[in-house]
Write a structure and sequence with these properties.
single chain; DNA polymerase, domain 1; 4-stranded antiparallel β-sheet; binds magnesium ion; alpha+beta; 21% strand; 12 strands
């Protein structure tokens, strides 16, 4: 794909309903919905069997039952869907770190930098579908395109169990024929307004005049015309960057020696903890990300309480996570290391845990925790004034052991 951007949109097919069928095969083939049966219950997910009756998600359950009297309804099990979702997202992570989750079962993946490694968009799409199926027994639909908008349209074209690649050169023709309601943000009401103007397809929409569009879209008129041509320059904003504070490093030369790995993990934990305090946050979960020389990426996490912003504590956990991985594969070379801090909360919440934290520090680290509590703000202050490289903890400095060749 030209302009060197390639985005995938991956969307599980009838996700909640498919998980229920997978866990209870006697539901297979039935007109199944997942949702609340109470008076105000709403359909959370609809199987493909029940969609034939005109039942769809977000529909009131009473309406769904009217349309399909033999409908079978099960209550949602969110904890189970989250479990399966984690398996799905861990497949994504095998192909790119640039993942923007939209919900438990849907994500954009920027695979522009992955094409050299893993092959064409079609190959990557096939691999993702295959690995999701192996991990969960469920089907996903994948769309690929030069941007998010096109990728999302593509994933919907061959659903369920679809795989559709839209090349740059095909975008114009496909969008010309696309009904306007297929564009995100154009609902029934807007579509009806447009139809009254003789605008039914994105092709019509892209050629509409300001005079026609301003009353409907106001100052977004020209933006909507660009959308109607399949143009979209929004970036994939990865969850890794957004919902966590992290530091990671790709090494020029793969690392192998324990001392070199230790030095890097200490430096990364220090950087991540410093960012955490800069944002006035505390963490309950330290994750270490490891990419080996053969491009396998894995993560190791440790969740704990009370929350902390303490560099020493975060560093110890990160080191321990790295060592426990290392113990299993002592020969693997490391291409990338990362430390991310998740389950974040405002530092003000620390007061809630203050007495417990001080008590545990007295028992476990009588001097260490107190000393680092004074040192951390000092280092942060120096970094704030002179830049991140201005000071380094002694433990992050190389020892006399020579670095990896
Ligand atoms: Mg879905």
């Amino acid at each position: 794909m030209s302009r060197s951007r390639c985005i995938l949109h991956v969307d599980m097919d009838a996700f909640y309903a498919s998980v229920e069928v997978r866990d209870n095969p006697s539901l297979a083939g039935l007109p199944l919905v997942v949702g609340g049966m109470g008076g105000r219950g709403v359909v959370a997910a609809a199987s493909y069997e029940v969609r034939r009756f005109g039942v769809h998600s977000a529909m009131p359950m009473s309406e769904a039952k009217r349309r399909c009297p033999q409908l079978v309804c099960v209550a949602p099990r969110m904890a189970r869907y989250r479990q399966v979702s984690e398996l799905v997202f861990s497949v994504f992570e095998q192909f790119t770190p640039q993942i923007e989750g939209l919900s438990l079962d849907e994500a954009y993946l920027d695979i522009s930098a992955s094409l050299n490694l893993f092959g064409s968009p079609r190959t990557i799409g096939e691999q993702i579908k295959k690995r999701i199926y192996e991990a969960t027994g469920l089907c996903a639909s994948v769309g690929a395109g030069p941007n998010k908008l096109v990728a999302k349209i593509a994933s919907d074209m061959d659903k369920p169990n679809g795989l559709r690649i839209i090349e740059d050169s095909q975008v114009a023709a496909i969008f010309r024929a696309l009904p306007v309601y297929r564009l995100h943000g154009i609902g029934k009401k807007t579509a009806a307004q447009l139809e009254a103007l003789g605008i039914a397809t994105c092709g019509d929409l892209s050629q509409a005049t300001d005079a026609q569009l301003k009353p409907v879209f106001g100052r977004y008129a020209s933006a909507i015309r660009a959308r109607a041509r399949g143009q979209d320059d929004r970036a994939v904003v990865s969850d890794w960057e957004e919902k966590q504070v992290s530091a990671e490093e790709t090494f020029a030369v793969d690392l192998h020696r324990p001392e070199a790995l230790r030095r890097e993990i200490v430096g990364l934990a220090d950087r991540a903890a410093s960012r955490l305090r800069h944002k006035a946050l505390v963490t309950c979960c330290v994750t270490v990300k490891i990419r080996t020389a053969d491009f396998q990426t894995l993560t190791r996490s440790h969740t704990f309480a009370p929350p902390t912003d303490d560099t020493r504590q975060i560093t110890q956990i990160a080191q321990h996570l790295l060592q426990s991985w290392r113990a299993l594969v002592p020969d693997d070379k490391v291409r990338l290391l990362g430390v991310s801090l998740r389950d974040l909360a405002p530092a003000t919440q620390l007061d809630l845990f203050a007495s417990a934290a001080i008590e545990s520090s007295v028992h476990t680290q009588p001097n260490g925790q107190q000393a680092t509590k004074r040192l951390d703000p000092l280092l942060d202050g120096i970094r704030g004034r002179f830049g991140a490289g201005a000071v380094t903890r002694a433990s992050a400095l190389p020892t006399k052991t020579p670095p990896d060749p």
